[in-house]
Amino acid sequence: MKQFKLHSFLVALASITLLASCHKDKVTPAPSKPTAERAGIYVLNQGGIGHNNSTLTYYDYTSKSLVPDQFAAANAPGTLGDTGNDLGIYGSKMYIVVNNSDAIYITTAKTAKQLSKITLHQPRSVVFDKNHAFVTSYDGTVSVIDTTSMTITKTITVGADPEQMAIANGKLYVANSGGLLYPDPPTNTLSVIDLATLTEIKKITVQINPIAVTADAYNNVYVLSLGDFDTKPAGLTIVDATTDAVKSEPTVSLGYNIPIYTQGDFVYYPTTTDNKTYQIAVYNAKTQSSASVNFITDGTSITTPFSISGDPLTGEIFIGDAKDYASNGTLTAFDKTGKKEYAIATGISPGKIVLLNK
Amino acid sequence: MKKHLPLIFNYQWRKPGCFAVLLCLSLPISVSAQSDTTKKIKEVQVNTTTLPAVPLAVPSQTISASDFSHYSAFNVADAIRNLSGVSIKDYGGIGGLKTISVRGLGANHTAVLFDGVQINDAENGQIDLGKLNLTNIQEITLYNGQPPTILQTARAYASSSVLSIKTIKPYLTAAEPYAITAGIKAGSFGLVEPYLQWQQRLSNTWSFIINSYLTDANGRYNYAHNDNGVKDGGTRNNTQINAQQTDGALYWSKDSAGFNLHINYYNSDRGLPGAVIDNAPPTFGQQLWNRDLFIQAGYEQKWADGFSLLLNAKFTNSKLHYLDPHFITATNVLDQHFTQREYYQSTALAYSILNNWEISLAADVAVNNMDADIPNFSFPTRLTLLNVLASNLVLGRLTLQGSLLYTNTFESVKTRTAYPDQHLLSPTLMATIKPLDDQNFQLRTYYKSSFRNPTFNDLYYGFSPNKDLKPEYAQQYDAGGSYRKGLDGLFDFITVTADAYFNHVSNKIVFIPTLYNGSTQNFGKVDIKGLDAGIKTALKAGNGYRFDISANYSYQQALNVTGPVTDENYLNQLPYIPKNTVSFNAGISKGSIGVYYNQVAISSRYYNNNNDAADYMPAYSVSDASVVYKTSLSHFPVTASAEVNNLFNKNYVVVQSYPMPGRSYRLSFQISI
Lengths: 358, 673
Description:
The complex is a heterodimer of chains A (358) and B (673). By secondary structure, chain A is mostly beta strands. Chain A has helices at residues 2-22, 70-75, and strands at residues 38-45, 55-60, 66-67, 84-90, 93-98, 103-108, 114-119, 123-129, 132-137, 141-146, 151-157, 162-168, 171-176, 189-194, 199-205, 210-215, 220-225, 235-240, 245-248, 261-263, 266-272, 278-284, 289-292, 305-311, 316-321, 328-334, 340-348, 350-357.
């Protein structure tokens, strides 16, 4: 009995020491298995709305150094501005979509040095196809940018308040959220744009207030909708990109944070029942069935999953945690079995994670 | 965090700048602001040759009408910014929202009393001090804790601090049965403000006073490059304000009884310039209209047998209309109307049991409701009952005061779930002692427990109201002392005060935005350790020269102790709370002319929780100066003054992305008939 107590005491002491040593330590980056192809990882942080403090975190795999704001470092005194919302790399260029600052910054991918700036009202998201960048705008449009000339060559009208996009079967799928139609309810359509003609060919009805879109290798498009915050809950619609018809609407328990990401045969998205504790659900794209209730297998908790990405080469999954949206977030890397590998500190509200190749 | 939800408008108004989260909504407005200035004049009436008032059981600081020009003050926020422990959150400009934070506590913890009756805002709990004009104000006193008066409304006991505004009362004689004062202020921002005051004696017992003013300004100002979210210089536009206020008061007094009736109407139309956003063009066309009416009546009587009675009643109807003509909606317009009403009644009865022992009972009833033309609004009605038992006991050099407040709230809604009924006890204990034979030296201490209920905005705004929200509690511990002395030599008098305090806030109410929505939650604990100190003196030099000097210092260590201890923000300073604030005011006067200089210096702050370089807001110091000249024109007293705000044209921001104005000027002329 005495020995047992002593043991408990030592354990407690060790715990305390551990806690004390953790206190206020910044997260130490220590990627375990960066592949040879990757130079590092970018995280676009939204910052606080109206604070003009969107930043671009860069973590270099080789030097193991963390740059809190690579954009500011490369373009001083320029900064990203207010609420950077999306980030994409296409070829040697990087596109940074800054929502409230009405800007699309085109930079070199490797250094984030600004090459051009396109002013577009309330831009939201970017995807790429055949030397074109497609950018949604709250004006209800998708702008087509020629990636060589870095100019807008066409503007395609879609639905209200378009958010994210995905490409499948030669078509661009655009979520028309209508989230700003207030006091009218949000909309519930997914615009289909033919990438050959760059015209809208169809609107597919999905669940109300669609936001996040991803596509798999089997011509399935996954659309996460936020619902109307009242009677209609958030939900998942799966669209068949071959027929452009709704394939299924699996029952999922989504919260208000709905990043979605496809890697290989699996689709990752957060679920919650109380909007406080989140799990990362995995859906099998091949079998069209649930693969796992929670991808994270080692008990690591994510307070506010704000972005999900990964590395197809290693099977790693990265999750951006916005925490309370007013404090610096983290990016946590998990190996393919769902065990935490490392975490790096990000800025406020890390909303997009993109790998940089060497 | 990304989308702009229309409902957000009101949240802007509540951005307290308190730690945590708040600002994630992109609001259409930007009237909110917070400036941190500190003014302090502990219990001293500036510019009087008499000895400052006797120190009270709680720290108190008073500034009276004659001082306003010494601080180059245009509104109540300007007038109190030197007070120690005070931070003003200022979104900038003549129409920008200005709210008070006392000793690191949010604006909702300070009650603003208008002639003893609270100006209550059930919608967002914060009073825009920029809306309170100085023309009809006699005196402003800030009490930490509560006013140590035995006979007052129960609401005066219910907040962690009280900003008490007393209006000008008519003091007329049969020989001079009326007095009319007319004046005009004009200056930068395209400001023109004519005002008129009419005091009239009706009989031996009846008199009235009517104050009226009209403010018109385009509000425009240039701002320069600044790192705090403002990359490039520019001009603040859509900043116009057009406001009128009329305050009529009828007074009756006879022997030991008095009655007053106030009718106050405020009408304003303001442009909202919004945050300065990099690269994006400034917003334009956003507009805010306020139509506030209140009718307030008070009756007080003292009887020879030791009883005294105070009755107050008030009706308030406040309308707020917000318009964003360029909001991205189906109609490209966001047009919202909010109306809140309050029916309030207060009864207080005090009794002197012995010469050295008084007790009192105060009972307040308030009914607040709110309408809004937003979908699924809950239309809440809140009944609040406040009952206080208070006692004041003098034992030789020791004075003991205590009060116990019992608050009950009952809420009903038309849709969704009502906030649960609350039944809370809030005790306060105060003690003062004069340990020395020198009665000018006094030590004091107090403990006070108070809370603030969630506001209607906290509870019913947004898409997913939090049914489990709890009140936010504040515990205050204060110990301090004061010394004052009238002197015969070079110095006219000197007063010195100092207080150390510890505040603990739990269940802090913060708005946590989620990706496309948000909710209000009890998130966080705060420990605030602080020091307030002040000195005031006056010198009489030769040749009729008089020097008035006051200086205040505040130290506020306001730490986020939410935890866990491993959290990277644990023990970080709260956003927007400066650690050090120094204010200084000096004046030289001779005969009819006086020259005054004021300075407030605020140490660096952070605007987010992390306290890292990205959140850093540099220290700043702002100076003001004024010249006041008093003379007479055909036997009518005339006052002319020239005031300069931000004398050295300092670029600074109080709230991230809201640049403050540079140097500005104001001329005033006033004549009394």
